[in-house]
Amino acid sequence: MNGILIIGHGNFGSGLNSTLEIIAGKFDFIKYGDFTSEKSPEEFKYEVRLKLNELKDKDKIYIFTDVVGGTPFKVACELKLEDNRIEVFYGTNMAMIIETCMNTQFEIDMDNDSIIKIGNSNINSFKLVKKDKNKEFSEEGI
C-alpha cells in the first residue's frame, strides 16, 4: 500500500486534509504538515521527516505540495533524494488528493502522469450561458 503526505504554506496541509475527511473520511495512510511563520525551514523539515517515518512501511509515498520553489516543495525534493519511494507533486488541488486517496484505499497504484492529468482536468472556470428568450420550441417535441 502507498502513503500520502500533504504539505504546504500556512494551513495548506491541514486544510486539504480536513476537506478530504469531510468528503471521503479519515485514512491512516494520509499525513499532513503545515509550514507556518513560527517554524524555521529546518524545524519544518524535521517535522516532515517524522511524518514520513509514520509512513515507513509504505511501498510508495506521494508528497503533495502547494507551490514549486517554496520551502515545502524544496524539503520534499531534498527528502526524495534520500528515499526513492517518494514522488513529489506541486500545484496540488483537491481532485488530485481525492483520486489518489481513493486509489490508494483500494491498493491501486497510480503513475505521476495520471495524477497530474486529474489535477489539470479539474481546473477551469464557470461560464454563464444565457438562454435565448426569442427561441421558440415546438410542442411536438423532436
In short:
The chain is α/β, with parallel strands linked by helices and 142 residues long. It has helices at 12-24, 41-54, 71-82, 94-105, 112-121; strands spanning 3-9, 30-35, 61-64, 86-89.
Structure, explained:
With 142 residues, the protein is of the alpha/beta class. The protein contains five helices and four strands; from the N terminus they run βαβαβαβαα. The chain has a four-stranded parallel beta sheet with strand order 2-1-3-4, with helices on both faces. α1 links the parallel β1 (3-9) and β2.
* Assigned CATH class: Alpha Beta
Binned strand content: 5-15%
- CATH superfamily assignment? Phosphotransferase system, mannose-type IIA component
First CA to last CA: what distance?
Answer: 52 Å
Structural category: alpha/beta
Question: What's the count of strands?
Answer: 4
Number of domains: 1
Largest sheet, in brief, is: 4 strands, parallel
Helix percent band: 40-55%
- The count of helical stretches stands at 5
Radius of gyration, in angstroms, nearest whole number: 20 Å
What form results from the Cα inertia axes? elongated
